[in-house]
Amino acid sequence: MSEIAHEIASQPSCWSRAVRMVREVAPDLPRTGERVASIGCGTSLFVAQAYAGIREAGGGETDAFAASEFPAGRGYDAVVAVSRSGTTTEVIRALSDVDRARSVAISAVPGSPVLEAAGRRIVVDFADERSVVQTRFATSVLALLRAHLGEDLTDAIAGGERALETETPADVAAFDHFVFLGHGWTIGLANEAALKLREAARAHAESYPAMEYRHGPITMAGPGTLVWILGSPDAVVAEHVRATGATVVTASLDPMAELVWIQRAAIELAEARGLDPAAPRNLTRSVVLS
Questions:
Q1: What is the average per-residue pLDDT within 236-250?
Q2: Residues with Cβ < 8 Å from 25, sequence gap 6 or more?
Q3: Domain 155-272: CATH class, spelled out
Q4: Helix H or strand E encompassing 177
Q5: Which fold has domain 3-151?
Q6: Which of 31, 81, 132, 234 is the most buried (most CB within 10 A)?
Q7: What is the pLDDT of residues 24-51, one digit of tens each?
């Protein structure tokens, strides 16, 4: 089993560990009702988006930003920064503009610069990865944040196991165009799903809020398109997509478990194309700017 395949397969156990650590780290995470910003880059940005979507449903007003676009000076009660390596320059710069007492950083690497730049620190080292392409760190952080917001992840963990034991819902090698659609917090996961196909397999992959897809992008859909719907408030979206000749997959598992299927699909497609999914061209584990 390749390193990245091992990392993907370890996710349900990592999620269980993340749930168990919630009580320990709860004092460091934002309280209900606080106004929160969540920041990150790449995959960590999409974790921030998903967290913001979930927290908005009952935890309090929550915004998500690419770290490079964080609006310094805006009045947030807490800023949650996510960075696997803890060395991402944009995240460190953003935290430098935040009152340390209001910042919390989540990283896989103890003592990393991002952690040192924040007033509160959470280390998820059991989910660190050797692969450039992120999988288990991102989903483990999201599992931690979901559990802290009061979600029961029993079904998500069981779904993750099922996604590892069963074949993916579509033969991705039969397609040359991929679209992922989400609604609410799963928009962040749709963005992450498309990124996985682009990073690992150099695939033409897009992502949109489900209801927005018909406002232009659907013109690109056709027989070579796979549209994977992680969440939609309107089932008619799938009907409209099928009418283009595209193949549609609708989520049957918890969205995080669906992402496990998508990660596996990305690896399968990369290997079918003769690519190394763990080390994509032009990418490094962390972006460190001069």
A1: 97
A2: 122, 144, 148
A3: alpha beta
A4: strand 177-182
A5: Rossmann fold (3.40.50)
A6: 81
A7: 999 999 999 999 999 999 999 999 999 9
